[in-house]
Design goal:
The complex is a heterodimer of chains A (112) and B (113). By secondary structure, chain A is an all-beta fold. Chain A has strands spanning 4-7, 10-14, 19-25, 32-38, 45-51, 56-59, 62-67, 72-77, 86-94, 99-102, 106-111. Classes of the chains: A mainly beta (112), B mainly beta (113).
């Protein structure tokens, strides 16, 4: 089955700096890659996603890049703010039927 | 308001006492899933349903049962809970018509003593 790995497990950044989280996946058939943000005590929520027919997608301060050849995708957060502090999960779709395999999550801490 | 609801939100129980965690969505989504979240292990899928009466095991199905008799409901059943099922549980729903975004419920924190 699909195996999704995230690096690093914890990331601390100064407010205003950029944060990058990288995920690798194993199944070359996967073609949908969402990122979820989970604030402390809350449910995961989708923040951005990308499909395999594009290499990059942006939404204000966040962006996702995809390298299908290398089987990795990354989340980029620019001009980080304290409210960006959260756990971020990457995921890859299994078998083309909307089942997702999640990574173990990255704790991002933005230091004011 | 479009939402996924779960009940109860918190539950403390004892080993062997059967329990059910309910999940309901009002978005007419075809797909529903149950996940458990444990520190350092991320979100692991327990069971999955593609539609009414269609369910499939996820990565960690042992000790759990599900049913999908109606499109909106997807209860999680623990017939004989054990302490290793102490966890945070999330239900989620999605649909190809909604870009396949998974909408999560608020979570159920279960403690089995």
């Amino acid at each position: 089955g699909e195996n999704v790995e995230q690096h690093p497990s914890t990331l601390s950044v100064q407010e205003g700096d950029s944060a990058v989280i990288k995920c690798t996946y194993s199944d070359s058939a996967s073609n949908y890659f969402p990122w979820y943000k989970q604030e402390l005590g809350k449910r995961p929520q989708l923040i951005i996603d990308i499909r395999s027919n594009v290499g990059e997608k942006k939404d204000q301060r966040i962006a996702v890049t995809l390298n299908k050849t290398a089987k990795h995708f990354s989340l980029h957060i620019t001009e980080t703010q304290p409210e960006d502090s959260a756990v971020y999960f990457c995921a890859a779709e299994l078998y083309g039927n909307n089942r997702l395999a999640f990574g173990k999550g990255n704790q991002v801490v933005v230091i004011p | 308001e479009a939402q996924v609801t779960q009940n109860p939100r918190y539950l403390i129980t004892v080993t062997g006492k059967k329990l059910t965690v309910t999940c309901s969505q009002n978005m007419n989504h075809e797909y529903m899933s149950w996940y458990r979240q444990d520190p350092g292990l991320g979100l692991r899928q327990i069971y999955y349903s593609m539609n009414v009466e269609v369910t499939d095991k996820g990565d960690v199905p042992e000790g759990y049962k599900v049913s999908r008799k109606e499109k909106r409901n997807f209860p999680l059943i623990l017939e004989s809970p054990s302490p290793n099922q102490t966890s945070l549980y999330f239900c989620a729903s999605s649909s190809p018509d909604a870009r396949n975004e998974q909408f999560f419920g608020p979570g159920t924190r279960l403690t089995v003593l």
